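Recap slide: Alpha-glucosidases, family 31 of glycosyl hydrolases, sequence and predicted structure.
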Amino acid sequence: MKKILFALCAILWSTVVLAQVQARSNGFVVTVKGVVVKVEFYTPNIVRVSKTLESGNVNLRKSLAVVLEPTQVEVNVSRQNDMVKASSSLLEVILDLNTGRVQFSNLDGSKLLTEKDYGVQLMPLQYVQRIREKKVESHVTGEVVPTQSAPGQNTPGLDRGKIRTIVENTYEVSQSFILDEDEVIYGLGQQQTGKMNQRNQRLVLEQNNMQIAVPYFASVKGYGLYWDNYSITTFDDTPMGTSFRSEAGEAIDYYFLYGGNGDATVALLRQLSGQAPMVPLWTLGFWQCKERYKSQDEVVEVAEKYRKLGVPLDGIIQDWRYWGEDNSSWNAIQFLNPNFSRPQEMFSSLRKMNVKMMISVWPSFGNGTEIFKELDKKGALYPMVSSPREAKVYDAFNPEARGIVWDYMNRYMFQLGMSAWWMDATEPEFYGAKQSDFNFQTKEGTLRNVRNIYPLYTSKAIWDNQRATTLDKRVYILTRSAYIGSQRYGAGSWSGDIRASFDVFKKQIPAGLNFSICGIPYWNTDIGAWHPYGNVYNTAHKDPAYQQLYVRWFQFATFNPMMRSHGTGSPREIYQFGERGYWAFDVQEQYIKLRYSLLPYLYSTAWQVTKNGYSYLRQLSMEAPHDTSTYQISDEFMFGSAFLVAPVVEEDAVSRSVYLPDNTKWIDFWTGQILDGGQVVERATPIEIIPVYVKAGSIVPFTTNEVQYATERKWDKLELRIYPGDNGEFVLYEDENDNYNYESGAYSEIPITWDNEKRFLTIGDRKGRFAGMVKNRKFIVNIAGSSSSKTVCYNGRELRIEF
């Protein structure tokens, strides 16, 4: 059959029609068996696929998670027999006109992902809401009824006296795909299954404490798939296919991203959903918290003890009940507790010690609070109760409501000196909710339709409003739940109210790695878990078995984007575990100091996260994509570009096996021993050692002066440690540490390269400048595993150091 090539117009969405196929300047639209399929190239390697019934609304609303707008992409559309093909410079998309199947391939024809034949379902549903019309309180009951009506054909309200019936017409939507039998995929948010590979399971993706629902997976074949639906969604993977099924939606809508490898695909996901801004430097230091500090005097006393001991500390977190003990005052966002009656004095004391403060804020408000009453007047509270039952959750999709919440945070917290926000229970939590409660009309549709994306909007509330208040202080948010795009609002997450055991500890590693693969780079856990051992709930810090778990967890946290101690029952401050000289104290201090010595590496990695869509936590296949032995590993990870970390996750372990990827040589961080990749090594693990290996060719900057907080000393003298065995490069990044001037170019980059064969290091010309920049500094250059060392003075001009 003659091959017909559609000449594409320069004007976006211009149309040439042949039979049922409409060629457009970035893709095509075609109707197959009553389903309208639209294929759009947003970039040469990001494709949106949407499907609606002919009777439905073909023009989809703007995505709530995606911020990328379609760019002008050169796409060739052709039809041959019963196939329609759209090709960019990087990707081919082929549609079967008989079955509706969409396939994604390389330009050489190698299949990446294909839909299942006849794999689309749009099942019409009605959600019926009967409201008893009372001005004060509404009594709601509801049910789900199958129907043939299409969305948009809503039944008018029926006048039955005091009862009004509202019908929402929607679809249950699902799409099935066929993956290779042995294909490995990652992602789906944060799960507590202990699995790194997300094949062969069913997961209900619903935001919950300890579970973060993100309908996205990435394949070791170098692609990612984002399912753009915010209702409760079930992910299924069986030998018969892989599918997403959502309980409500107007269409099938998903994005296919092809980066070619794990790091590049994460970068594409950030391009699609928003880049992660720079965090303040001080947030990369050590954080102390517990449930909870019961007075402002206790908060100040903890900071004072750290300073007296000389143990570095940058942040302290105040958990709940600072608003008072009565549930009706829940989350008033005011210091109403008599034990916090002098908050300005508390902030003043902390400021003198250079300790920043983060505070717990919930999206639910007690019915006796001022903010509850203000939100209630605006109709911006959901009908169901939350935690506690005297509280209700606010409609974060309502911009006016978000403004009200920020007004309280600003007046009673931020203006006093609060530096960061701990957004708890942002799933959000509901108790005794009925199906009809989710018919509540938010500003972005029914709560049912947008439920899983709720946490993104709680972060948006702070990001938009704090930046409108000032650009002198960066937004920093720790939120218990998240969604695709949360990173663009300066938000990271933690793994929720987990319990203390080595088994739970081990599960946090794949939980964090899979979460990071979803494009949200800042993640951490409660060191030692939220719940300590049951038998020693209040005295766990004195129990040697728990101390061992805590110390092993502490070592792991040193190599997390945020290093934070927290938990209930037993206190968590370092001095609660014993005095200096006792192993449980000394090992904590050792790793806190290691963390602070790594600040230049951590901050420069943060810049790569912001500038290039990079990740702190990287599964080993991202480092060695062609080494299939890395694919299933769930208890090791890369921390940035240099460090391979293998936490000790077995009780009383005296050693552990570590797999070293075959892409290069590896150097033992503690001994300098050089090892070949592609092998399993057995590493001794006395209590002070977590196995850490450094990739050959790595250049790692260390501070040389001990500090008590991150910004105490300028980096006028740094060690550059070279790990030989391969060529390497690193960019040392600096800026003003805690404002947004870097967005206007107020920062510097120093490129550093190592030539392994010629054995010389080049410190390149400094690029950029900012107020307070160190113009002249010393670099102490050391070759790991040897006695080779040289000290050079650097003034911003290129230096070459030979060894």
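Residues 727 and 755 are 5 Å apart (CA to CA).
Residues 454-469 form the longest helix (16 residues).
(End of recap.)
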